Amino acid sequence: MLEKEKRTILEILKIEREMEKRKGLKRLQNYNSGPVVHEKQMQFHKSLKRNRWVFGGNRTGKTECGAVEAVWFARGIHPYRKNREGVNGWVVSVSYEVQREVAQAKILEYLSPDWIEEIVMQSGRKDSPSSGIIDCIAVKNVLGKSSRIYFKSADQGREKFQGASLDFVWFDEEPPEDIYRECQMRVMDKKGDIWGTMTPLKGLSWVYYEIFLNPRGDSEIWHCNFEWKDNPFLSDEEVERMIAGLSPELQESRRFGRFKESEGLVYPEFDPDVHVIEPFDYPEEWQYILSIDPGLNNPLSCHFYLKDADGVIYVAAEHYEAGRDIDYHTAKIKELADKLNWKRDSKGRIEALIDSAANQRTLSGAKSVAELFTERGILVNTKVKKDLFSGIQTIKCMLASKPPRLFVFSNCRNMIREFKSYWWAEGDRPKKADDHCMDELRYLAMYNPLTPVRKTVKTDLQLDIERLIRKRG
Asked: For the whole prediction, is pTM greater than 0.70?
C-alpha cells in the first residue's frame, strides 16, 4: 500500500512540474490572442520606435506589456521585430522590494521553467525565485546562445549602471534622469531599445519634458497613455467602483496616467490618440489659410490650416523657429507652401493671419512687421480677434466635440508639444511661456471670413449731425 501511495505521489509531483512548465508557455501564447484584446498594449508592441513609453494608471496593463516585451526579446520570438540571438537586457525598478513584487513577478509568470537555463539570486533560494531577489535569469533563445535578463534597482545609484553593452532596458516606473542617461549609453553600440511603463506621480518631471513633450522632435520617441477603460480585462462595474473611489485630481494620474500640475492644463480635452492623425492627401479646396505668431529672438510660429466641407479644421504643416529674421522666415514659409502646392492670390501672395501687434513700428525700423511680411509675398491680415477666453473656449469646444472638429497632423510636433504643456497660471490666465502655437491657433479659431458686416441704420438726427460736421470741416 505504501509503495502504491508513493508512486501516486511521485506521479502527482510529475504532473505538477509539467503543469508549471506549461504555465508560462500557455500564458504567453494566450497573451492578447483570444477574442478579447488590449488594443493599447498591441500598439506598444507593434511600434518599431527604439524609445517607447507607456504612461498608464494603476491596473491599466502597462507592466504586463513591459514584461511580455522583455520575454519576447530574450526568447528571440518577438512577432513584430527582427529578433536577435543572445540578447542581454536590464529590468530597472525603483527598488529591489518593488522589483520582487512587480517586474520580477511578471517576467516569471511568462517564462516557462523549460526556457530558464539558470537563475542567479541576489537573495533567497533558486528553487523559490519568486520569494527572493533575482540578480539574473539566463534564458534559452530560440535562435541560439543564451539571453540574460538582469534586474537592477534605481536606488543603487548611477555608478552601478555603467560599463555594460545592452540590447534593451525596461524601466518599470520612472527612473532618475541620470540613470536614464546612463542607460541610453548602454544601448547605443548595439542600437538597442529602451521602454518604460510608469504612472506619472512626480508631476512635471524630466520624463514629461524629455519624453512626453519631446522638444527636440526625436523620431525614435513614442508614447501612449493607458487608462482603466482601455483595459478590456477590467469589468465595467470594477471601473465604475474605482472611479467612485478617487477624486478627479487623483484620477488624472491614477486612472488616466496623465502628467499634471496643480493649476491644470488649459486643454485637458486634447488627446493625442484622438486629435493627432497621420498626414493624408487632401483636396485642394480644403486649403484654408495660414496663421502666424511673429517672433525674432522668440520662436516664430506659422501653421498651414485646412478646412473641410463640414467645417472641421486640420493643422497640416508648420514652420517654427527662433532667432531668425523676416527674410529667413518668409523664405521658409514660401518653401513649405511650394511643397504643399498651396494656393496663392492673383498677385502670387500667400494669405495669413497675424497678431495685430505686427502693425506696430519699432524705433529701429521704418516699417511694421506686417508691412515687411506683405512686401515679401506673405499677405498678412492683422484684424484678428484676440479675446483670450473666447478663443480658448472655442478651441475647447472643437476638441471636445463628438466627433472632434480639430485635428493636428503628426508632423506638427511643436503644436502638439504646446497643447500638452499649456498650463493655467495662478488666477484666470494661462502661463505666458511657450505659447506661440497656441496664440496663432486662437487667431485661426476665431477667424470667420464669411461673417457679414452688419450695416447700422442711422437716424435722421445722426445724419443731420454728420452733415453739420462736414460743413464745418
From this structure: no
